[in-house]
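Input/output pair, single chain:
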Amino acid sequence: MERIQNLIFDPKDDSDFLTKIDFSEAIVFPYFNGLRIEFPKYSNSSKMFDGKSFRIVLNEMETKELLKVYPEFKKVFAKELKIPTQENIEKLNNDNNFDLSKFSSAPKELELLGILNPNSELKMMKIETYRNQSSSNELMNTKYFYFNDFKKLDSIIIKNEREETLFSEAYFYDKNNELTAIYNPKDETKLRLFSNKGSNGNKEKIKMYEYRDALSNQYLELSVIREITVFNDLYRYSQEIELVGEPKYENKTYVRFLDNHSYCTEYLCVLYDEKGRLIGVKTNKYQTIDVLVNENNQPLEAYFDNDRDKCFFIYDEKGRIEKFQPISSNRSSVVYEYHEDSNHPLTIFESNPELKHEYFFEFRTP
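Output:
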């Protein structure tokens, strides 16, 4: 793993790569917040990628350096982007501000850590799932979440009742605790690699996916995607660009922006009043999601699709969720039972299907 990461992210010498590129074949045009340099398929340059087209995207800072050499492009970039305040950058980067799942579903497994609030020495969270709520003998599977010394997710392992591994996934980080790789030996995408950099709030991520055939374990394809995030005043733009081969989909662009007290995307706005109290959600089809909240701004009731779908939330005196109740025939209600035991803090009961989840913590010894 370390050898692969060093090979991709810390190349000692780019000269061999550059000698294989015929820059006279390059198609250059303004793109996003910089320039896009495209090399067509079947060109001489594309031979190193088996004749597939490939592209290089220059960000704002890289483009400024290029403009010093090719000033004819300067008029296209006459307008500078306005960097928002650090407070607004944090608001735009906070996924929770734009997430609607908290109004329509129970908290996810890792989200419960924020509710259970274990101490900083948490080493592992184990979840035992049983088929019957009243029995501890019908074990279905056990899920393990391991954490490193920096509280980052280290690995996830799922085993069946016979202790056979059904799923495993390992996470790797750089010295700044930024995610650099995810490895799953049984997944179609066996290896996912990431590289991060950025300045002034703007960020870039290179995502590389290694696809292998599940039966033969033979290499099929390496997909390389560059994700660029830039800010302009109260807006955040993110785009994914496939760098090698013909794009399998149109380049994805995601927009977030702040509108007075609301958090918006191209599809929806999460509405707050001037006191920061949640009002509701407005979608791009001019439908609304009505939300009733408590004094802690936690959802109590949420109504969707002209009240045809409803969700109710109940909390205890500590503000912890006690029950999630969707009003739908095919969705499960979830009940949370908390224990005064740091090693066994929680039991969860689901109604459809009838399941019991026992949560256990293991801590590092001093």
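Confidence is low (pLDDT under 50) at residues 1-13. Helices lie at 2-9, 15-19, 60-69, 86-93, 112-116.
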